[in-house]
Amino acid sequence: MTVSSYSFGQNLVNKETEKKIDELLSKMTIEEKVGQTVQYSSLWELTGPMPNGESEKVLYEKIVSGKVGSLINITGTEAVRKAQELAINESRLGIPLIFGYDVIHGFKTMFPIPLAEASSFDPEVAKRSAEVAAEEAAAAGLNWTFAPMVDISRDARWGRVMEGAGEDTYLGAKFAYARVKGFQGDDLSSRKTVAATAKHFAAYGFSESGRDYNAVDISHSTLHNVVLPPFKACVDAGVATFMNSFNTIGGEPSTKNSYLQRDLLKGEWEFDGFIVSDWNSIGELQYQGVAGSPAEAAQQAIVAGSDMDMEGNCYSTSLGDLINQKKVNEELLDEAVRRILRVKFALGLFDDPFKYCDAAYEKETVYAEKFRKDALNAALKSIVLLKNEDQILPLNAQLDQVMLTGALAIDKDSPIGNWRAQAIPKSAVSLLEGMKEVQNNLTYVQGPDYVRNDSLTFLSLLDINETDRTGIKEAVKAAKKAKVVVIAMGENCFQSGEARSQSEIGFKGLQLELFEEIYKVNKNIVVVLMNGRPLDLTPIQDKAKAIVETWFLGTESGNAIAQVLYGEYNPSGKLPVSMPRGIGQLPIYYNKTNTGRPTNEDVIFTSRYTDIKSSPLYPFGYGLSYTTYDYKDLKLSSSKMIEEGNLEVSVKVTNTGKVAGEEIVQLYIRDKVASLARPLKELKRFEKITLKPEESKTIKFTLTKEDLAFYTSNNLWETEDGVFDIWVGPHSDEGLHATFEYVSNNVNQ
Ligand code: BGC
User: Fold this and answer.
1) How much distance in Å is there from the Cα of 578 to the middle of ligand 1?
2) What is the number of other CB atoms lying within 10 angstroms of the CB of residue 24?
3) pLDDT digits (tens, 9 = 90+) for 637-666
4) How far is the CA of 257 from the centre of ligand 1 (A)?
5) Ligand 1, from 45, 46, 47, 213: best to mutate by most atoms within 8 Å of Cβ?
6) Taking the mean position of all CA atoms in its chain, how far away is CA 544?
7) Is Cytoplasm included in the keywords of this UniProt record (predicted)?
8) CA of 99 to the centre of ligand 1 (A)
9) Residue ranges of the chain with pLDDT lower than 50?
10) On the chain, which terminus has fewer CB atoms closer than 10 Å, C or N?
11) Measured between alpha carbons, how far is 404 from 431 in angstroms, rounded to an integer?
12) pLDDT of residue 455
């Protein structure tokens, strides 16, 4: 067999390799088999607490004695080669190691954070970003990324909202699929691709009260209808590995959840790659109170189908004994090892274990200039224009006296975002640099510092400046003279990410004070937001004339924002999350089910708040452009959809403004009467179109019965007969409406 016959999207099992795996397994001692299931972190970079410090020497000895299957947090061809040489040349069987790393939104050339890329509503953007990340990572010795994170998230308090595609299952599944394709390409054995990981399996995004690592308690219906489809999309895309999650669901930790791992993923979905635990999630079974010892934890995890132990030291210390004492069936270990070896074969590591270790290729590939245009393109498409009163934007570099302020405007680090792999600190194009390229008479006055510690890292705690007002006066003075004031506001990038949950989602430090002081002297305010989670925008909503959501856009951040501010690029992004009116609305998401007392803000005994509206400040799917679009002529091919048939839906969209633009046309449905309460709206299709001024296009969507199906109490995906609402429009809260009826064969008979 040639390794390239592991074609993308096909399953990893192939007769010839399975034979080779049989042969290998027959030669392996129990200790060597256990070794394959063990993953250690390097000592020089950690992404979690290290349970048992291992000195480098001890780690190397373990590799030589076949006690390690994989390393995490080791990058660069030199370091990888050194470790791989030990495994190949000095261990008894010479089984190659697999090197994993969190390459989430770029390796060194940084792309927008995943939440930002989801705002493009353009899966091709995410695919290309994953391709580049894979190319750089693979050139630097890696062959496995712990991405994509496909957790649905509805609670902005949770810091990891930044890592996923937002609140919607359909959009999430499309991005999940695209990212896996991007990372893995058509050929896992290519030196431009890496194995991907669908994580965190499952429901980690539903951590109670948005606090990281917290328990999850969701319904069977939410699990199947909302949480799982993006994971299934990863399997459909041929993902090589899965990572389980830290959380419990209804008291059952994912790491020992046999239903999820064995019955569903490896059984029903026929996933044939392997499952890695999350960092010490096997060991944490003890803290969760389901295992009394590392041995018990190891036993539960292997029985439930967790194949590899990331830094948990439970498999390494206990699995061998458990098998010798007949407490764990050796076949379970064999199965885990088989799955791990399968991925190593697919990566081509048995043919050439050093193919990811070419130093010259690494030098020419990592941070190559050619990737900049991809990073810029992704950044441009990720920007969402939320407000543009009096058409204050775009700015005119020749006529407008523009003043820029806010500490984030010169911040070259925050736009890189958290989960930054090997990004060079402070290497992003800042907003100031980007705007200066277009307008060199720009005035910049920083205002107060945002954070006190300017050398933050993944491991540091944030120290926000709340007292030093230096710079406010000077900023106000300059604002008086300007025609337009651009204020960069939001978060430092290390406010979001793992372990960065917050009880407040407002503007921290002195940012609002600066905003208010400027507002007193100049009403022409454009706010440029940089943030990793939805923020509470209510304090600035009415006062700012324009609000531009940029998230964290990566290396090319400042250039992309400047192109949008000055109208060189017409923004087209749409929100992948609802923007709340305040923390009290969380969790908030558009696709909620109805209540028996549907919300009516004017009627007291309905599902509402007494102090704020129930609707979000900006709905899911929302985003403006410098032009306007008109939707008309919503047409359905029939008022009935029969079981074998399709429903054709068409709509005419016209650019009614003066500039060309891109619009994301969105189709939503509602199952009006069903056996379970169904969401008020659900995204089922979207398409990005480009329109010149006055140009019209007719967009056609085809729906099938699968689009109408949901996971019912029969534990099946079923489409139920009855009437459906359908909307096509610019976002989840606006659209042309029609209805149709679905009729199954059962009814016809
Ligand atoms: C995170 C994972 C990550 C792993 C390795 C964990 O703390 O939850 O998403 O892949 O660390 O860095």
Assistant:
1) 26
2) 19
3) 999 999 999 999 999 999 999 999 999 999
4) 19
5) 47
6) 29
7) no
8) 14
9) 1-10, 50-51, 749
10) C
11) 9
12) 82
pLDDT recorded at residue 367: 98
Q: Please name the residue whose Cα sits nearest to atom 2 of ligand 1.
A: 278
Atom number in ligand 1 closest to CA 149: 9
**Single-letter code of the amino acid located at 282:** I
Distance CA(301)–CA(309), nearest Å, equals 9
Question: Which CATH superfamily groups domain 629-743?
Answer: Immunoglobulins (2.60.40.10)
- 391: which residues sit within 8 A by CB, 6+ positions away? 626
Amino acid at 344: K
Q: Among all chains, which residue has been given the structure tokens 């948005």?
A: 210
CA-48 nearest atom, ligand 1: 7
Query: What residue type is 582 in one-letter code?
Result: G
Report the atom number in ligand 1 closest to the C-alpha of 197.
10
User: Which residues line the pocket of ligand 1, CB cutoff 6 A?
Assistant: 47-48, 102, 146, 199, 278-279, 498
Q: Which of 689, 698, 702, 742 is nearest to 720 (CA)?
A: 742
CATH 3.20.20.300 residue ranges for the chain: 104-358
Ligand 1 centroid to Cα of residue 731, in Å, is 33
Catalytic residue among 102, 122, 151, 278: 278
Residue 21: which of 335, 269, 348, 354 has the closest Cα?
A: 335
Distance CA 56, CA 44 (A): 9
Alpha carbon of 278 to ligand 1 centroid (Å): 6
Q: How far is CA 298 from the centre of its chain?
A: 29
Residue written as token pair 């509470």? 536
- Show the CA angle centred on residue 158, arms to residues 663 and 584, nearest 5°: 85
Which residue's CA is the closest to the ligand 1 atom numbered 6?
Answer: 279
Q: φ and ψ at 166, to 5 degrees? A: 100, -150
Distances (CA, A) of 743 to 233, 598, 648, 714, 715: 27, 28, 15, 19, 21
| Active-site residue, 155 included | no
What does the pLDDT look like over 209-253, one tens digit per residue? Answer: 999 999 999 999 999 999 999 999 999 999 999 999 999 999 999
Between the CA of 498 and the centroid of ligand 1 the distance, in Å, is 8
Is this prediction's pTM over 0.85? yes
pLDDT value, residue 747: 61
* DSSP 8-state class, residue 186: T
Give the residue range(s) of CATH 2.60.40.10 domains in the chain: 629-743
pLDDT, tens digit (0-9, with 9 covering 90-100), for 426-452:
999 999 999 999 999 999 999 999 999
pLDDT of residue 6: 36
Encode pLDDT of 308-343 as tens digits: 999 999 999 999 999 999 999 999 999 999 999 999
Q: Tens digits of per-residue pLDDT, 64-112? A: 999 999 999 999 999 899 999 999 999 999 999 999 999 999 999 999 9
Domain 104-358, what fold? TIM Barrel (3.20.20)
- Residues of each domain in the chain carrying CATH 3.40.50.1700: 370-570
- Between the CA of 113 and the centroid of ligand 1 the distance, in Å, is 16
- pLDDT at position 277: 98
**Cβ neighbours for 469, distance < 8 A, ≥ 6 positions apart:** 448, 510, 513
Residue nearest to atom 4 of ligand 1 (CA): 279
Q: Which of 103, 151, 279 for mutating ligand 1's site (highest number of atoms within 8 Å of CB)?
A: 279
Which atom of ligand 1 lies nearest, measured to the CA of 73?
Answer: 12
Encode 312-369 in three state secondary structure.
Answer: CCCHHHHHHHHHHCCCCCHHHHHHHHHHHHHHHHHCCCCCCCCCCCCHHHHHHHCCCH
Q: Can you say whether the dihedral through the CA atoms of 474, 476, 480, 485 is positive or negative?
A: positive
> Distance from CA of residue 739 to its chain's centroid?
34
Question: Burial level of 269, CB count in 10 A (0-12/13-18/19+)?
Answer: middle
Helix (H/G/I), strand (E/B), else coil: 662: strand
**Residue 163 alpha carbon, nearest atom of ligand 1:** 9
